[in-house]
UniProtKB/TrEMBL annotation:
UniProt cross-references to InterPro entries, sorted A to Z: AMP-bd_C, AMP-bd_C_sf, AMP-binding_CS, AMP-dep_synth/lig_dom, ANL_N_sf, ATP-dep_AMP-bd_enzyme
The name this protein goes by in its record: Acyl-CoA synthetase (AMP-forming)/AMP-acid ligase II
GO MF annotation, one: acid-thiol ligase activity
Superkingdom in the source lineage: Bacteria
Residue ranges of domain AMP-dependent synthetase/ligase in the record: 20-324
PROSITE patterns in alphabetical order: AMP_BINDING
Organism the protein comes from: Lentzea albida
Keywords: Ligase
Positions of the AMP-binding enzyme C-terminal domain: 375-436
Length: 457
């Protein structure tokens, strides 16, 4: 057995739980789980996984809710060295079947967890091999099959969340505010899980929120992740009918850029609590603005960032190395040790990063990125559609939404509801258009291609 300091992820997290001892680390309703209890659950589930023949390099799919056992199961999967695949809610049946077909030896649902809790008499041993893939984190699935970002055990061991000595300045400041951090939706979310680990390392408690909308007040939370549309709703609600947000210390804004005006308005309404993060599934955190950074920026990146023809290329310690089983798209995104973000940005004179656009044709709905190409292809399958073009439009509920322009085949224009049903069945509800415009033909740019800028205008 290797020395403890040589063990890979999640050794650092296990050490944090051991140091917590009798301190609460996870709270779900009236249930409170201490560090010792969480560590015990991890050990027992790891024993159960090994009893099922799961070890280094094996595929382990987790279709789990947001519970203490789910958190322990994720860690246990990494303890035994498996390739952990978190299956988030909201995917279509076809997408879930696709994920479960990615060399998976065992799939676990919430009902399976009690049977995995086996006795564990020996000390926890982390069996992950540095070059093995530790987890597959999936993109939105707007291409039909979600792309799986493959992160190695070496990369997860080098990531910063459970290593205070590696915390960038913005994370060091954020860590002081994570007394009670809300988790909701899915622990397979990279953002949700990373900040949960950071919270435990900072000495805080992870608190489960069924409905995050009122949880700050009801659960006396000090921190939560929030999308830009969610932030706009919170700001509007505070102006209209202020709630008691006196415990709030940090809103982790993610998913899409904040305009300087909206950023400034949120700071003025909510106080100095905004931490505006910029990252991708492929990279993890790239940069983060603290409440003291200029509105409209995402702070000063603590990682390597190059701007090539306006586009951002980055290198982070915990970045993915490929799209699992997808060499063509891997070659387009993972370039000589760099990750091509497909985002456009620039640095101001003080080194703050400003995001100014996207180099790819996408719509970002509820912080999830969806490529428009597959949506256009599905729309064009409708018998009354000759051509289809999709653009992103602002939406108060989701940040952005899909608007479809279609060239009808004949005299009949398809109904919006027909197109929504078609797209939802194939790609999920987030890709379904909220608006429809029939056109005789698309406007054309000087190069001869359809000009979506004119459609958007």
């Amino acid at each position: 057995m290797p020395a403890r300091d040589a063990e890979p992820f999640p050794r650092a997290v296990l050490d944090v739980l051991a140091a917590a001892g009798e301190r609460p680390v996870f709270e779900h309703g009236t249930r409170v789980v201490t560090g010792d209890e969480m560590l015990g659950m991890v050990a027992r589930i790891a024993s159960g996984l090994r009893g099922n023949g799961i070890g280094p390099g094996d595929g382990l799919a987790l279709l789990l809710g947001v519970t203490a056992e789910a958190f322990a199961a994720i860690l246990a999967g990494h303890v035994v060295g498996a390739r952990v695949v978190g299956v988030r809610p909201g995917l279509t049946e076809a997408q879930v079947e696709h994920l479960l077909g990615l060399d998976i030896e065992l799939a676990i649902r919430d009902a399976d967890l009690p049977g995995l809790l086996q006795s564990a008499d020996e000390p926890l041993r982390c069996d992950g091999r540095p070059n093995d893939i530790a987890r597959l984190i999936h993109t939105s699935g707007s291409t039909g099959a979600p792309k799986a970002c493959a992160q190695s055990y070496a990369a997860m061991t080098e990531a910063w969340a459970a290593r205070p000595e590696a915390w960038p300045p913005a994370i060091r400041e954020l860590a002081t505010r994570l007394d009670r951090y809300l988790v909701f939706g899915s622990l397979s979310s990279q953002v949700m899980f990373e900040y949960a680990m950071l919270t435990l390392t900072a000495g805080g408690t992870v608190v489960v929120a069924g409905d995050p909308a009122d949880a700050i007040t009801e659960l006396k939370a000090t921190a939560r992740v929030i999308t830009v549309p969610g932030l706009a709703k919170l700001v509007a609600a505070q102006k209209r009918d202020p709630a008691d947000l006196s415990t709030l210390k940090a809103l982790l804004v993610s998913g899409s850029p904040l305009t300087p005006e909206r950023h400034r308005d949120a700071l003025e309404t909510l106080g100095p609590v905004l931490f505006h993060g910029y990252g991708q599934t492929e990279t993890g955190m790239i940069s983060m603005a603290t409440p003291d950074d200029p509105p409209g920026t995402v702070g000063r990146p603590p990682v390597d960032v190059e701007i090539r023809d306006g586009e951002l290329y980055v290198r982070t310690p915990g970045q993915a190395q490929e799209y699992w089983g997808n060499p063509r798209e891997s070659a387009e995104t993972f370039v000589d040790g760099w990750v091509r973000t497909h985002d456009l940005g620039r640095f101001d004179d003080d080194g703050h990063l400003r995001l100014i656009g996207r180099a790819r044709d996408v719509v970002i709905v509820n912080a999830n990125l969806h490529y428009v190409g597959p949506i256009e292809q599905v729309l064009a399958e409708h018998p009354d559609v000759a051509e289809a073009y999709v653009v992103a439009v602002p939406d108060d509920e989701t940040g952005e939404a899909v608007h479809a322009f279609v060239v009808p085949k004949g005299d009949r224009v398809p109904r919006l509801e027909e197109l929504r049903e078609l797209v939802t069945a194939r790609l999920g509800a987030a890709c379904a258009p909220i608006g429809l415009t029939a056109i005789a033909e698309p406007p054309v740019a000087p190069g001869g291609k359809p000009d979506k800028r004119q459609l958007t205008a």
